[in-house]
Amino acid sequence: MKDKILAPSILTADFGNLAQQIRYVELGGANWIHCDIMDGQFVPNITFGPFVLKAIRKSTKLPIDAHLMIKSPDNLLEEFINAGANYVTVHQEEVVHLHRTLTKIKELGAKAGVALNPATPVSTLKEVLPLVDMILVMSVNPGFGGQKFIESSIAKIAELDSLRAENNYHYLIQVDGGIGMDNIKRVSEAGCNSFVIGNSIFKHDNITAATVEFKNLLS
User: Fold this and answer.
1) How far apart are the C-alpha atoms of 44 and 42, rounded to whole Å?
2) Which of 54, 115, 128, 137 has the most neighbouring CB atoms within 10 Å?
């Protein structure tokens, strides 16, 4: 679990030049492309669906990490995976039959992730920890980019890291929200493997240089 994965979130990218924006982070050494899928119901924002993700797939060979912040995600799992998502993450707070949903994602050929909102404890995932490929710790309340990192997320990351080590689980720990150059090392030291970063990369004057700087901080 030593490898550190930089997963720039295109939520705050320039969608008018999205292919070029993705190219900039590729040049900087990004490992994944993170796609925040919002429906205006589970969270108070709307982004895009499978058709746009399919276009993103054509723009990059990097793994695509689809974070489904939507109502009834089971209805669209196949569409997102067919569009090119390599990882699909659903929210514990929304999915009624979590074991079934995670199993279905894996059967469809993708890696299965589950996200926890800031107020949701790690203990709610006890029964699926052996099954899940990735756990996403939301370090802001989901819905919008540019929010401040919630400090209690560090303890949650560390708890997941301890459980992983004690039980020989193999899930990745991903963190999304408010990660910047001032706190990425603390997040990494707590046990995070995959770092979702939006504003600090795509709002930077030089997207490639910002990507390189974050990669250097994780090396």
Assistant:
1) 7
2) 137
Q: Nearest to residue 99, comparing CAs of 79, 125, 75, 78?
A: 125
- Read off the pLDDT of residues 111-134 as tens digits, 9 standing for 90 and up: 999 999 999 999 999 999 999 999
The runs of H, that is alpha helices, within 76-205 are 77-83, 98-107, 153-167, 184-190, 199-202
Number of domains in the chain: 1
Q: Around Cβ 219, how many Cβ atoms within 10 Å?
A: 7
Q: Can you give the residue range of the structural domain that contains 15?
A: 5-218
Instruction: List the catalytic residues.
Output: 36, 176
Comparing C-alpha atoms, which of 115, 113, 112 is closest to residue 156?
Answer: 115
Block residue for tokens 């209690």 = 152
The CATH number that applies at residue 70 is 3.20.20.70
The pTM assigned to this predicted structure is 0.95
